Amino acid sequence: MEERIVSRDYLKELRFPFYIMRCTHNTSNVPKMHSHDFVELVYVIKGEALHCFEGDVYPLKAGDVFIINPNENHTFEFSEGQEIEIVNCLFLPDLIHDACLRELGVDDSMDYFYVLPFLSPDERFHHRLKLSERETSAILQLLEYMMHEWDMKRTGYTTLIRLKLVELFIQLSRIYKDWVSSNRDDSKRRSNHLLVQRINGFLERHYDEKLCVTDLGEMFNISNRQLNRVFKQETGLTVVERVHHIRIEHAKQMLKESEEKVLHVAQKVGYDDPAFFSHLFRRYVGCSPGKFRGHGK
Asked: What are the residue boundaries of the HTH araC/xylS-type domain, all occurrences included (predicted)?
């Protein structure tokens, strides 16, 4: 049975929603199938296991790095005698604000963070990052630094962890880009695919803000017409339809997990007009927000 883990179970510091730990899993302590409302970055230090993710199973080995998004179900499976040692890095997506990334000049070099988590499950894990020996050493060093700062909690530790987390994402982005370059067979197709995944990543992070195709076109240097055409071609949805889908999924989670009024839920996912929100909710879910909440309890 699926277990739901919420951020307050691990991310107890509201001003710094972060947690990092090194742990070992085997047949004696297999976690239940679970999901959570935070991002989980997993680095496999040693060992082997199977990763059960959203109904599929993938092999894991030392040097693998992957990200689990909020609301995705996963656990591990082990054969007798198998175990894995991993680093779990847990955080809320807004731990590092976009304004900070822009100020540091690294917002365009974060493809691993912005793109990989929003690829389809098959592509994400078939093409997961497998680090070389040199890359393994560099990534583990960053994670161990963050673990040390987290354990000691000396003055300024939150700032240092944020900086090291940005460095981690940049390093992983470089590895990801190298992989993309080495596997490029159809440059135009892959270019469009990458563009749509970058936009998807942006929409997932900013779904509660006012979004329009014109602003996205300017941001990603593409005309409105071309943006709509490429996005529809890649996803089967228009940009606006994708925004509605993301917002309604977040609204469903809020309705299940909180007592917030429907009006407030609508506002939190980006709708100022509660009537319009309710209309969309019925169209996408098949019932009103109130009825959905009642059935979910």
From this structure: 197-295
